[in-house]
């Protein structure tokens, strides 16, 4: 007969054993997951980083063919970490990175060869699903591997932290989101975060994929040249979305109109020939 969990807890308390003595569960992360990081440069939450796992870069965001209205809803996390007015703060920054394997030349994982990196750039003007930022080429393999190693360092920190798909860690000490940004933005060399005087809900993050090799890459692209994948957005309630430049499917009314127009054109041509 199985003992119910609440009975187990009662037995532990009676025996004088603290439930807190058991190790907390480490956060869940799989190689290649996109980590979305938040940091504040002053005020509430300035000593903490919020990091959220958005899932696999290659299967969810790479070459996405449709928009994702809600990747995650993290409003309560943002409020508890950065205060009730997080959405209007100009000193709150966010960005995202992903890497599955930092070793150059290693076999591809789901079409991403070793040292394939994903990172964001702030949109110059908010326009979800349209690339408005510019990501510079990373021409050196040494630099691409360094970026990969930095992202892997954050992955390790995330995996060791207490949580599930999100963690709140100190902004200093070890490899944190803040320290990785300080290290030349994970080694990218230019800013990968966004902020705005009107709050981060007025910003967009363009996601880029950059290859270190085309061996077994799927899809392939020019090595060292960032390829735009789509745009992350966040609402003032904390809903993270992802938009792509997808061509909408024509409605039946439009298709019918096009068919009717073609039919009338053919009849006109026939009458002219007659």
Walk me through what this model shows.
This protein is α+β, with helices and mostly antiparallel strands and 274 residues long. The chain has one domain (25-252). The chain has helices at 5-14, 57-61, 75-82, 141-160, 177-182, 252-273; strands at residues 33-40, 48-56, 68-73, 92-99, 117-122, 166-170, 204-210, 227-234, 239-243. The protein has a 9-stranded antiparallel sheet with strand order 3-9-8-7-5-4-1-2-6. The chain is globular. The chain starts with a helix and ends with a helix. Mean pLDDT is 86; it is low at 1-23, 251-258 and 260-271.
Main sheet?
9 strands, antiparallel
How many β strands by DSSP? 9
Characterize the overall form: globular
Proportion of strand residues: 15-25%
Q: How many H/I helices? A: 6
Radius of gyration: 24 Å
Trace the largest sheet across and list its strands.
3-9-8-7-5-4-1-2-6
Which series of helices and strands comes N to C?
Answer: HEEHEHEEHEHEEEH
- Give average pLDDT, whole number: 86
Fraction of helical residues: 25-40%
